[in-house]
Specification:
This protein has about 250 residues and is mainly α. The chain is about 75% helix and about 0% strand.
Length: about 250
């Protein structure tokens, strides 16, 4: 028998015992470790597409020549370099380059939903196929998640200067994608449910976000190739949190 998310929160209030942060993290590492091949494929596809388009657009908008000017400015001192960088960032070509990279990132975003599908298949003991990695591109899904990412990143860029608000934005949207994917929720409905979850699981969500960000990039800092495995770890954290917070209790 299906239950509503309101009933889920009601039951959680009646049974206040919550899985600890250690349980959520162990569960995330389980999903990540169980799917290392798909983590690697995710990173290979992501970086291959991203850097291909980045080099293409950099050449298209003449940024390689400007990078040479930046290198020469750096030799003249930090102040000269920062002034040159600021001037470069205000040019039309650089703005177009930034929008092109944003579009590329939006195009790649649905890859994350593929990992959610793979994690769900593990729970259901179903056979995992390589095509599952591209589940976010099926039918209307692609345009739905493309639109969501553009909306998300626009708000994120506005909050970035404060850092604190950027972290809050990440926390109040961490469940939006899985809610859209698994529960077919609309963006603002999912954000509302996310905020309700944040009130109950604020510490768990905040700690897991910090761990996810650190682990996501630590592979590149310690051993570059290892970053290909750790880069998608964020999705395992999100799925583990989602499964814990929105678990259907009977």
């Amino acid at each position: 028998m299906m239950i509503t998310f309101a009933e889920i929160f009601l039951m959680q209030s009646k049974y206040p015992q919550k899985p600890g942060i250690d349980f959520i993290l162990k569960q995330a590492f389980f999903y990540w470790n169980k799917t290392l091949v798909f983590q690697l494929m995710f990173s290979i596809v992501f970086f291959a597409v991203f850097f291909t388009f980045m080099f293409f657009f950099a050449a298209r908008f003449g940024l390689w020549e400007q990078n040479q000017e930046l290198a020469e400015a750096l030799q003249q001192g930090t102040a000269v370099y920062l002034e040159k960088l600021k001037a470069m960032g205000s040019t039309d070509n650089y703005q177009m380059f930034s929008f092109a990279l944003l579009g590329t990132s939006a195009f790649l975003y649905p890859l994350n939903l593929g990992l959610f599908q793979i994690f769900r298949k593990i729970d259901l003991n179903e056979k995992i196929e390589m095509g599952d990695l591209f589940a976010g591109y099926n039918g209307f899904n692609f345009f739905k998640y493309l639109g969501y990412f553009i909306f998300w990143v626009m708000v994120y860029r506005l909050t970035m200067p404060t850092i604190f608000l950027a972290v809050i934005w990440v926390c109040i949207t961490i469940f939006v994608a899985p809610l859209m994917f698994f529960a077919n929720k609309r963006i603002f409905e999912a954000i509302s449910l996310n905020i309700q979850a944040l009130r109950t699981y604020f510490l768990e969500i905040l700690v897991c976000v910090i761990v996810a960000v650190l682990f996501k990039y630590i592979g590149f800092m310690l051993f570059f190739v290892g970053g290909l495995f750790t880069f998608p770890f964020w999705n395992a954290i999100i799925y583990s949190l989602y499964k814990t917070v929105f678990s259907e209790k009977s």
